[in-house]
Amino acid sequence: MNDRIDSHAGAQAAHHGNDSSNTMIAIEGVSKRYGDFQALERVDMDIARGEFVVLLGASGCGKSTLLNLITGFDEPTTGRIRVNGREVKGIDPHCGMVFQQYALFPWLSVLDNVAFGLKMKGIDRATRYATARRYIDMVGLKGFEDRYPKALSGGMRQRVSIARVLANDPDVILLDEPFAALDAMTRQVLQEELLQIYQKSGKTIVFITHSIDEALMLSTRMVIMSARPGRVACDLTNDLPMPRDAQVQLSPRYNELKSQIWNTVQTEVMRSLESQAA
């Protein structure tokens, strides 16, 4: 294996060696079982403040399960997860989730959708609308504040979802294949916009995708999950220069990284298929 790809043990030693005050998400010996089904087994991972971590792996390797554990939608069978030093016990308000499906309120305008979480926190109308407008502008939807979701394209709805999460100012933003349902051109545009938002906001982001190209475009770090049960198979720093746009995909380094990742992913996909056939 190329020396730019850390072994699991080496990567974990490096990340655990970071100053604990810089750790935003600490995943410690986490396993998750549903009856006889083992989704995750002994996952250890530290994610530093301000990292953009992309999780890759075959279908069923536990990526979404891990995201649900981080945000507190579910709880580990064994192990623990801490976000910004606090152990996750139930739904954690310090995590914001963006799903593949847009999960907007159809009866609310763009402005009211983005401001909804602030309203639930008791923030006064003027303040929450000013905050919502700032993030609507950040995601490129200025002028659409009074539109309703049904009048927006899929890409625009997903921008509203991202703006709503940002407006709530979480410590961590979790995205579960948010661009999977979009056409290729819209997906590319939103990838570039998400990178700009990431650089402006400085948030810690964990992003799930099946696309190696998407992972390379977005991440500062890529974690490849093993075939079921899910473990960390490979932990790789993405050293492609930022800001990134479509041109970076033509660089030799991009293709080198893509080949390395594909070799690991292919191995895990084949293991997954073999286990299903057994």
From TrEMBL:
Signal peptide: none
EC number of this enzyme: 3.6.3.36
Source organism (scientific name): Pandoraea aquatica
Family in the record: Belongs to the ABC transporter superfamily.
MF terms (GO), sorted A to Z: ATP binding; ATP hydrolysis activity
ABC transporter domain location: 25-252
SUPFAM superfamilies assigned to the protein according to its UniProt record, in alphabetical order: P-loop containing nucleoside triphosphate hydrolases
Protein name: Taurine import ATP-binding protein TauB
Assigned keywords, A-Z: ATP-binding, Cell inner membrane, Cell membrane, Hydrolase, Membrane, Nucleotide-binding, Transport
CDD domains xref list: ABC_NrtD_SsuB_transporters
SMART domains: AAA
InterPro entries: AAA+_ATPase, ABC_transporter-like_ATP-bd, ABC_transporter-like_CS, ABC_transporter_ATP-bind, P-loop_NTPase
Pfam family, one: ABC_tran
Gene3D superfamilies for the chain: P-loop containing nucleotide triphosphate hydrolases
GO BP annotations, alphabetical order: quaternary ammonium group transport
Gene encoding the protein: tauB_1
